[in-house]
Design goal:
With about 725 residues, the chain is mostly beta strands. It contains no helices and 51 strands. Helices cover about 0% and strands about 45% of the residues. Strands 23, 24, 25, 26, 28, 29, 30, 31, 32, 33, 34, 35 and 37 form a 13-stranded antiparallel β-sheet that branches. A seven-stranded antiparallel β-sheet has the order 38-41-50-43-44-45-46, with no helix packed on it. This is Family 43 glycosylhydrolase.
Length: about 725
């Protein structure tokens, strides 16, 4: 989204060293280094990337100035790239005076999503201020269309989703749209944010109107920035959580759930639903202790090798604001490899955002035909008539590439049936074609969705690994297959690649063949938890150990029966108040893991802001990392909050790590960075003490001495007591 956030939801951290994979431009041949937007912009938030009809890649971002000191807001800036690494500014989608009829004069445009729908390019975009009311944040989802991603873009004069009054006053946050074409060819739009949550509505066949009733898919006060793709029969809902824009304390991150139905319910890896008070969410992307924090609001794309990539924004913790402190958060565009391990997506095998040189995406191959000229010398006509004109190949019969290919590979083309009964590709003697209502690969076939118009441009992709061939047809090439067919080959595919049209002409474009990507099968390991360090730990079996030290002692905290019982205080530690008690111990030297088990009955659904209890890594009242189970409005979350001094005042943000139970196990894994001496604390949580979800990393400067302790604060009404079973340190 843009810059606004409803107060209360924050937290996250992750610490892992990246081990071989992919970062940004100017890093050498076939390498790149983040941020990929550095060549044209200092900030490019909420990015989405599509491959255009011309074979180039187009990125769209939220309306902001692009450069420090520029002072001029770009209205949905567009960038263009041939290789997904080196980008150039390609203009704004909308002129300064261009807006739909329902938009107020001062409206901004946030978080665009661009897709091919019904044969044209469609942009869904947040309109922040409408003429519905005097409220300056009566948001709506607008829609615009264009003949190409570069434009010109023309607004429709009615919103796809109009402003929605909220039961708590004001208007629900009708922002962050994302479209998906489902397996049956129906179109869906996901939208929403913290105030109101994420919902999905069906769209009309032309994609310009919402129809039917919206369905909530992710709980309010936790998620926004939804993005959905379909893979192996599952719909995956990516959603950003925590605060996007807290400058150097931003802990924005991406979580995911999946469903067999585009309307949900979406559940995470542990079976926890995303649309309930104790909402789940499997981590996909979270900060790891390097340069980047606030990693979120993602989209997904696929390169020519079939490798998926995640595009997102992040904040350089050393340069968090575009200009003056506490103004526009500087959020450049990053790109990283998205791996699928055991059916779940994760960035760089779980290592998180990259800040070193990495292998670049594959954007060309042995065959890479864009048909920008009439030259067909790289092809031979087997039969029929073929010509290249206007950037497309048109003909009927068979046209074969003179480049022979083989091995594990991905081939694809964009095609339209302008008169043909069937059209497609022939690979090593196997025909893969669409037409007559079916997608067919050799003897394997599947029905296309009813009403699918093959006169509209679609992408046909074929992947061969060993003797397994899989073909998919999709409208936007963005994880939106409307048909998939699999074929077991009698021998490896090798030889000729041909385009074919039968019964009349067809158009082909962007015909490519590239070596198929190699899938990553194993995630980077979680922090190692060794034996208990008894001299630093306390089981609370004999009163409070003398090694404990209080900051603002609370006499209500007592130890008996093997537990520390601490009534939640009407106090807090964030901001300038600093009234809450903190119970601390010295930590061991070197690397360690601190763990506690805390029971805190916060109920569900009701508003109990911001009662919480858990672990804290503490330097002083203005520099700490707090891992607690907490009530945030109607939700119950595990928040990993962080406060540090910046520009003369304390700044607080955070991230979300797992799903709390009434009893929750919490861990902070500490390591000292061998390069710069920083203290890195990665957070983990568990509902059973056995299965752990690991999240973000917060860092403390070298030369500080963080202590580890417990907290129980955030509000005394209704009265509730936190019960800690122990504090243990593990080597």
């Amino acid at each position: 989204m843009g810059h606004l956030r409803r107060g209360g939801a924050l937290a996250a951290v992750l610490t892992l060293l990246l081990a071989g994979a992919a970062p940004a431009s100017a890093a050498g041949p076939d390498r790149y280094r983040n941020p990929v937007s550095a060549g044209f912009a200092d900030t490019f938030a909420d990015p989405v990337v599509v491959r255009g009809d011309d074979g180039l890649w187009y990125a769209f971002g939220t309306s902001d100035p692009l450069r420090e000191g520029e002072g001029r807001t770009h209205r949905v800036p567009i960038a263009r790239s041939a290789d997904l690494v080196d980008w150039v500014y390609a203009g704004d989608a909308f002129a300064p005076d261009q807006r739909p009829a329902y938009a107020a004069p001062g409206a901004a445009f946030w978080a665009p999503d661009v897709r091919r729908v019904a044969g044209r390019w469609v942009m869904y975009v947040t309109v922040t201020d409408t003429t519905v009311s005097d409220d300056t944040f009566d948001t709506a989802v607008g829609v615009a269309t264009a003949p190409s991603p570069a434009g010109p873009w023309t607004f429709a004069d009615t919103p796809v989703v109009a402003p929605r009054p909220g039961a708590g006053g004001g208007y629900l946050w009708t922002i962050d749209p994302s479209q998906l074409t489902g397996a049956d060819g129906r179109h869906w739009l996901y939208y929403g944010s913290y105030y109101g949550g994420i919902s999905v509505t069906e769209l009309s066949p032309d994609g310009l109107r919402a129809v039917g009733t919206s369905t909530p898919v992710a709980v309010d006060n936790k998620f926004e920035g939804g993005y959905v793709l379909r893979r192996d029969g599952w719909y995956y809902l990516f959603a950003s959580t925590a605060n996007c824009c807290a400058g150097p304390a931003t802990g924005y991150s991406v979580q995911v759930g999946r469903s067999r139905d585009p309307r949900g319910p979406f559940t995470d890896r542990d079976g926890q639903r995303l649309d309930v008070s104790r909402a789940g969410g499997t981590p996909v992307l979270t900060q790891n202790g390097n340069r980047w924090i606030g990693t979120g609001h993602n989209a997904v794309l696929t390169d020519l090798s079939g490798q998926d990539w995640i595009v997102y924004h992040a904040i350089d913790r050393a340069d968090p604001y575009l200009d003056e402190p506490f103004g526009v958060n500087e959020r450049p565009m990053l790109l990283d490899r998205l791996d699928w391990i055991d059916g779940w997506p994760t960035v760089n095998a779980g290592a998180g955002p990259s800040d070193t040189a990495r292998p670049a995406p594959v954007t060309t191959g042995p065959v890479d035909a864009r048909f920008a000229t009439a030259d067909l010398r790289g092809w031979r006509a087997e039969h029929g008539r073929w010509q290249a004109a206007g950037g497309v190949l048109t003909g009927s019969g068979t046209l074969t590439s003179r480049t022979r290919i083989g091995g594990d590979l991905r081939v694809e083309t964009d095609l339209r049936l302008t008169g043909a009964a069937t059209a497609g590709l022939r690979l090593g003697g196997v025909d893969v074609r669409v037409g007559r209502g079916r997608l067919t690969a050799g003897a394997a076939t599947t029905a296309l969705p009813a009403g699918l118009d093959l006169r509209d441009r679609h992408n046909l992709a074929i992947e061969v690994r060993g003797r397994q061939l899989v073909a998919t047809l999709s409208p936007s090439r963005l994880g939106d297959p409307v048909a998939r067919v699999s074929l077991r080959l009698s021998r490896p595919a090798a030889g000729d690649l041909s385009v074919r049209a039968e019964g009349g002409p067809a158009e082909f474009d962007n015909v490519s063949a590239a070596r198929l990507h190699r899938s990553v099968r194993h995630a980077v390991p979680d922090p190692r938890v060794g034996p208990v360090l008894r001299g630093f730990s306390d089981e609370f079996t004999g009163g409070l150990d003398p090694a404990w030290q209080w900051v603002r002692q609370d006499p209500a905290a007592t130890v008996s029966g093997g537990a520390l019982r601490w009534p939640v205080q009407d106090a807090d530690l964030s901001g300038t108040g600093n009234t809450a008690g903190v119970l601390l111990r010295d930590a061991p030297a070197g690397n360690y893991v601190a763990e506690t088990k805390v029971t805190l009955d916060l109920g569900e659904d009701s508003v109990r802001n911001y009662q919480q209890a858990g672990l804290v890594a503490y330097v002083d009242d203005d520099r700490f990392a707090r891992l607690t189970q907490v009530a945030i409005w109607n939700t119950r979350q595990v928040e990993y909050g962080y406060e540090l001094p910046f520009a003369g005042q304390p700044v607080y943000g955070g991230s979300i790590v797992g799903t709390p139970g009434t009893t929750t196990w919490l861990r902070l894994a500490h390591r000292i960075d061998p390069v710069d001496g920083e203290h890195e604390f990665r957070a983990g949580s568990s509902r059973d003490g056995k299965h752990w979800t690991w999240g973000a990393v917060w860092t403390f400067p070298a030369g500080t001495t963080p202590r580890i302790g417990l907290v129980a604060h955030g509000g005394a009404a209704p009265a509730v007591t936190a019960e800690f079973d122990y504090l243990r340190f593990h080597r």
